[in-house]
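User: what does the whole thing look like in 3D?
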Amino acid sequence: QSALTQPASVSGSPGQSITISCTGSSSDVGSYDLVSWYQQYPGKAPKLMIFEVSKRPSGVSNRFSGSKSGNTASLTISGLQAEDEADYYCCSYVRSTTLVFGGGTKLTVL
Amino acid sequence: QVQLQESGPGLVEPSQTLSLTCTVSGGSISSGAYYWSWIRQHPGKGLEWIGYIHYSGTTYYNPSLKSRITISVDTSKNQFSLKLSSVTAADTAVFYCARALAYDSSGYWKYYFDYWGQGTLVTVSS
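Assistant: Here's the predicted 3D structure for the full assembly of 236 residues, as structure tokens:
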């Protein structure tokens, strides 16, 4: 199974909105509403930000939202803050109870 | 609060077998809805799902690593383990253990990682 495709980097200014895409195929993202997103600071473990495409765990800011269209899932961060600067990874259920991650996107807050 | 902690050698010689254990506290590994997972991250790179195990012993592996992986569970110790054989320098990575929620009480699929260990760096070198 191939890694999901994410842009290597995105950037935005404080207060702006940014969107990170996660492109898969009809075998993964396109077939299952089982996409999750993780935030990772350097040297730290990833943290769950979005599950099942668009659901937020308790405690995650409502500035984070998720969506999906066809084979592409997206993570949108609105009202960008300095603390949002991190790496972001998508993950999708593939088939036969396996999972695949995206390559990761480095978010820079200008 | 569930906590996971990886343990094992930080240095493994090439061609040997990498062995790591994840100890789960604050919850039972024998809960049916969860798959206990291993994920790795090569230095400066992205996350790679290695595989996971249900407390019943059922395993699911990344097809690209399947021939070299064994994941096992010890419910009496609330631990699960990873063995990766025939390692090379390309296997140098931070290894994370994590809990994946597979389905909810109604049986609906979930498949996301809700708790992670802090990660442990394993270097393959002679």
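In plain terms: The CA atoms of residues 1 and 23 of chain A lie 13 Å apart. Chain A has a mean pLDDT of 96.
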